[in-house]
């Protein structure tokens, strides 16, 4: 008596696998990770206007990992809603009756990383140095309910420019995206808000 063994064809590669294969830079350890995080931002978190930026990172001669790559990547895009609002900025908005939905969305930067990847203060400082100081404030505002809302928005944007220069509403910030690619890792992407410099503790 013979038994028949059915042979099934291998599963088709996923859309993400095909994207990584087509767009990754050969030999760069973070290229595939950057593509994976960009895909996650676009399809899971609905970011738009996504771009990948090359940045130069300082190297440590004593680190073999540093010698493999002197460059890194940043991703920038427009999130569907505000990711972070400084507490002082939030108070300013509340006092003027402004909501997050009233404020024009800004381009935000994301730093792709892998769990267990080593980062020095020198490297992180270089990442923040590569970020722009800030985007130009919008010259016009779409207001549909009250005319005084336009005046409040004008006041907000003007004050925001000053607050950024003095760092009253915090310094530069980005999202650190970390992928779990270790043994048993499922490729989950976790995002952390990271701010430049020392953040002063707040009293409640």
UniProtKB/TrEMBL annotation:
Gene3D superfamilies: 3.40.1350.10. The keyword Transcription regulation does not apply. GO terms for cellular component: tRNA-intron endonuclease complex. It comes from the Eukaryota. Residues 57-80 are annotated as: Disordered. The keyword tRNA processing applies. Residues 59-71 have a biased composition (Polar residues). InterPro entries: Sen15_fungi (IPR042777), tRNA-endonuc_su_Sen15 (IPR018593), tRNA_endonuc-like_dom_sf (IPR011856), tRNA_intron_Endo_cat-like_sf (IPR036167). Coiled coil: none annotated. Residues 36-137, 151-204 form the tRNA-splicing endonuclease subunit Sen15 domain. Keywords: tRNA processing. One of its GO terms (biological process) is tRNA-type intron splice site recognition and cleavage. Pfam families: Sen15. One of its GO terms (molecular function) is nucleic acid binding. Belongs to the SEN15 family. PANTHER family: TRNA-SPLICING ENDONUCLEASE SUBUNIT SEN15. This is tRNA-splicing endonuclease subunit Sen15 domain-containing protein.
């Amino acid at each position: 008596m013979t038994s028949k063994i059915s042979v099934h064809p291998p599963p088709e590669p996923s859309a993400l696998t095909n994207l990584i294969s087509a767009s990754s830079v050969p030999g760069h350890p973070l290229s595939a990770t950057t593509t994976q995080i960009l895909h996650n931002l676009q399809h899971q978190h609905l970011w738009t206007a996504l771009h990948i930026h090359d940045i130069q990172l300082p190297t440590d001669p004593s680190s073999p990992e540093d010698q493999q790559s002197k460059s890194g990547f940043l991703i920038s895009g427009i999130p569907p809603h505000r990711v972070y609002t400084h507490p002082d900025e939030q108070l300013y908005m509340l006092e003027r009756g402004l909501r997050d939905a009233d404020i024009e969305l800004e381009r935000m930067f994301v730093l792709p990383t892998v769990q267990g990847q080593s980062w020095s203060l020198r490297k992180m400082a270089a990442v923040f140095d590569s970020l722009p100081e800030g985007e130009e404030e919008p010259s016009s505002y779409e207001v549909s309910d009250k005319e005084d809302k336009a005046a409040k928005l004008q006041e907000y944007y003007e004050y925001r420019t000053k607050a950024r220069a003095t760092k009253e509403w915090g310094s530069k910030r980005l999202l650190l995206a970390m992928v779990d690619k270790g043994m048993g890792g499922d490729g989950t992407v976790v995002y952390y808000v990271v701010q430049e410099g020392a953040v002063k503790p707040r009293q409640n």
